[in-house]
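Justification of resources, computational component.

The compute hours requested in this renewal are based largely on the per-chain cost of generating structure records like the one below. Each record pairs the submitted sequence with a full structure-token output. That output is archived, and it is also reused by downstream analysis tasks.
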Amino acid sequence: MSGPKLADKIARRIRAEGPLSLAAFMAMALHDPDGGYYARRNPIGRAGDFITAPEISQIFGELIGLCCADWWRRSGRPNPVILAELGPGRGALTEDFLRAAATVPEFYHSIRLYLVEVSPVLREQQQRRLGAAEPRFVAGIDGLPPGPLLLVANEFLDALPIRQLVRGGTEWAERLIALDPDSGLAFTQGPESPALALLVPPSLRMLPPGSIVEICPAAAALAASLGDRLAHSPGLALFIDYGYCPSAPGPTLAALREHRPVDLFDEPGSADLSAHLDFAAFATAAEACGAVAHGPVPQGRFLRALGAEARLAALSKRAGPAQRALLESGLRRLIHRAEMGNLFKVLALTSPGLPAPAGFSAEFAAAGTENPA
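The structure output for this chain reads:
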């Protein structure tokens, strides 16, 4: 149903209900059970629409595994411990995580693996790849059992539905999606309302007319839920994504097909949709419910602090020239400032009284406050 058929379904909903929020449009375009982007396709990899850090280099998942093993050891060695990944893709991160975790047998044997995944296509791939670890599949974090928690989410928050608010002449209004005279999808603007200002981060409320601010209610709800859980049960949550800190204005929502940007309304359901994460808003929501936030820190500095270059050297010793070149180019892509090293950031949430993970020293935390170039 993707493409024209899903576009027709969206148009019928607009005729029946009126203009849609961007969040409602994104939810249909990404998750409609018949034509949504994630419903029937495998989007990840060079043959898909985008590629993620675990697919670029095994070092990424290995270092996160060792980071969690170190934090687990310094936090009382809870056994069992729930390991949950949000949006595990094709399972590469967890596979590399578990391989590194196996070097710490006590930690490895304490893990109970849960995968938070809604795509039936990706669940099937994850089961094939990670079946030996006996994963349990759940649709959301509310499906995770109680107990000590290690949670990892790489490029998960950027795909959550967002809303865009526009500063009007006097108050804020919401940017909505309506139908143009030819029945095509087009942006429109809702009425100005003083209440909408409450959704805008305080530092941005007095921006000039025409300014656009993106908010992500789903991310805020996730942060609040995790914050409450971590306030009452020991745990660590690591979020790796592209975004900014502090909060900043400007539209970032984009559509990607076959690794190239396309128009947002071109064949809904056939392209990935994502927006940059406001790390400051996410951390604030988690801390308001009792968690402690660390960072965010730039991904490049975080991976270097965990020993990325030493791991590259160890792998290179056993690699031939071609494989060594791939290892080097993959790590460069992850850590170089001009590639993913600065745009992508890492935020940690922990329970009060538990240590910060490795890689979140004071100097790294200070560095993480810069905006991407």
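The chain is about 40% helix and 20% strand. The mean pLDDT is 91.
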